[in-house]
């Protein structure tokens, strides 16, 4: 009897030791230099500089000239968006862009929030920094970094920012928001050297937040922003108070996930699958394999030869618009492929969509943004961060039309301290832009939960 108890205590102690050791595991990284040539001997300039988005007659004249010289292509009959962006509808979008879209007005809209740049690891990092106008006495604003993905930009968050910095409900938390552009995207400078992946972006954004005076903060992300903010939580788990994401594809499928795929359709309750989980996952060959193949062609190009396709997009505004806007159709709702107009304006305005395109066009960042896939996938699927669980308090907003559906069981495999999992009533991949009110409500709910747990 004594021997059995002793063995049990030893085994139990060993399990606790291994679990605790895993909880203490953090992602390792080293400083880099992404500017041209070798790093200078002098210390890096840490000045924060004000920045404004600008335009000019020459920039617009060049755009219009290129649009006017585009060569239209006929779409196949009855093809809708199944072959990509429908060319007949593209002509209508281009006509609006050329004749009615007011870029100067949109530039003013972009500048409604303060923009800044600062040099980190040899490149200029652009970000929007919005402080609340009013904070209740005895309280302080909660710092939050929000990171975009591809083919989005910081502009995705423009509808969400005021809901967080100026909430209408007096019982809501007030946030101080930082929205950076991933280096190589928008107005952040592109790395000059190979190897700039999500971990490098995470490290740079940690340096940015420290430079702005934040010792602890919350983080939110979708698409690449999901991975960058996840890496931030893995790098410095004591700095990131809470992580909120709306995209979380499994990084390393485990036995539990495999079993859930094999048996979940027949025994959904065994794996905690909801009706929405079953509808999105089965039949699994169609939903998980065929659908992924249909929507991942761009990824194979960008993860292997981004410069080849990117060069053409960098020269043609119409080609660039077709390439980007097709994602805002299909990734918002895959059924939009069945519509002649791709359902493009059912969730977004052309002004907002073209503003995002113009950020890519005027900054000339499409090639460098595509390279981010090469840098992340080029190292294989077994990167160190894929093996490290996240123990930072995490909230997941599960939007029903997300590109890749992730049940709660799968999310918990990676995010071991999942404090909220919210099935959302509507919305797709670009959720912050499509459903800012729902996103703001979920960020509020998650942050309140974490803050309450942290109180003594």
Defining key terms:
alpha/beta
Please characterize this protein's 3D structure.
- The protein contains 20 helices and nine strands.
- The chain has helices at residues 2-23, 57-68, 87-99, 103-110, 161-165, 198-211, 224-235, 255-263, 275-281, 284-295, 297-302, 306-315, 317-330, 344-347, 350-363, 366-377, 384-387, 408-414, 431-434, 436-454, and strands at 48-51, 115-120, 123-130, 142-147, 175-180, 217-221, 240-245, 394-398, 418-423.
- It has a nine-stranded mixed sheet, with helices on both faces.
- Helix 12 (306-315) packs across helix 13 (317-330) and helix 13 crosses helix 15.
- It is globular.
List the helices and strands and how they pair.
Blueprint: H1 2-23, E1 48-51, H2 57-68, H3 87-99, H4 103-110, E2 115-120, E3 123-130, E4 142-147, H5 161-165, E5 175-180, H6 198-211, E6 217-221, H7 224-235, E7 240-245, H8 255-263, H9 275-281, H10 284-295, H11 297-302, H12 306-315, H13 317-330, H14 344-347, H15 350-363, H16 366-377, H17 384-387, E8 394-398, H18 408-414, E9 418-423, H19 431-434, H20 436-454
Parallel strand pairs: 4-5, 4-6, 6-7, 7-8, 8-9
Antiparallel strand pairs: 1-2, 2-3, 3-5
Helix pairs in contact: 6-7, 12-13, 12-16, 13-15
């Amino acid at each position: 009897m004594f021997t059995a108890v002793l063995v049990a205590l030893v085994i139990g102690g060993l399990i606790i030791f291994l679990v605790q050791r895993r909880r203490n595991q953090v992602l390792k990284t080293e400083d880099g230099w992404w500017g041209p040539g070798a790093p200078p001997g002098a210390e890096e300039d840490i000045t924060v500089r004000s920045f404004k988005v600008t335009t000019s007659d020459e920039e617009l004249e060049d755009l219009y000239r290129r649009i006017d010289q585009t060569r239209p292509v006929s779409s196949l009959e009855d093809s809708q968006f199944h072959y990509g962006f429908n060319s007949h509808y593209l002509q209508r979008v281009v006509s609006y862009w050329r004749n009615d879209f007011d870029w100067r007005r949109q530039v003013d809209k972009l500048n409604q929030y303060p923009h800044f740049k600062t040099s980190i690891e040899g490149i200029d990092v652009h970000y929007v920094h919005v402080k609340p106008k009013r904070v209740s006495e005895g309280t302080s604003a909660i710092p939050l970094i929000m990171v975009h993905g591809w083919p989005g930009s910081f502009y995705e968050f423009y509808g969400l920012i005021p809901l967080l910095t100026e909430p209408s409900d007096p019982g809501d938390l007030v946030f101080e928001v930082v929205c950076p552009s991933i280096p190589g995207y928008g107005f952040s400078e592109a790395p000059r050297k190979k190897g700039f992946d999500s971990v490098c972006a995470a490290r740079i954004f940690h340096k940015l937040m420290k430079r702005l005076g934040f010792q602890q903060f919350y983080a939110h992300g979708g698409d690449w922003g999901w991975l960058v903010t996840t890496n931030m939580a893995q790098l410095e788990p004591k700095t990131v108070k809470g992580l909120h994401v709306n995209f979380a594809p499994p990084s390393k499928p485990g036995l539990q996930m495999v079993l859930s795929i094999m048996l979940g359709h027949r025994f959904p309750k065994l794996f905690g699958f909801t009706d929405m989980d079953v509808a999105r996952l089965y039949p699994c060959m169609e939903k998980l394999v065929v659908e992924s193949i249909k929507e991942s062609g761009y990824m194979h190009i960008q993860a292997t030869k981004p410069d080849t396709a990117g060069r053409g997009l960098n020269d043609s505004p119409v080609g660039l618009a077709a390439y980007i806007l097709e994602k805002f159709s299909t990734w918002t709702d895959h059924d939009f492929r069945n519509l002649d107009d791709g359902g493009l304006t059912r969730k977004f305005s052309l002004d907002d969509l073209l503003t995002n395109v113009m950020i890519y066009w005027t900054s000339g960042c499409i090639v460098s943004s595509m390279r981010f896939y090469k840098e992340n996938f080029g190292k294989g699927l077994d990167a160190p961060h894929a093996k490290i669980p996240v123990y930072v308090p995490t909230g997941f907003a599960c939007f029903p039309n997300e590109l890749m559906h992730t049940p709660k069981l799968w999310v918990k495999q990676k995010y071991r301290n999942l404090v909220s999992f919210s099935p959302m009533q509507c919305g797709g991949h670009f959720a912050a832009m499509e459903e800012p009110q729902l996103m703001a409500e979920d960020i509020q709910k998650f942050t309140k939960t974490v803050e309450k747990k942290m109180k003594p």
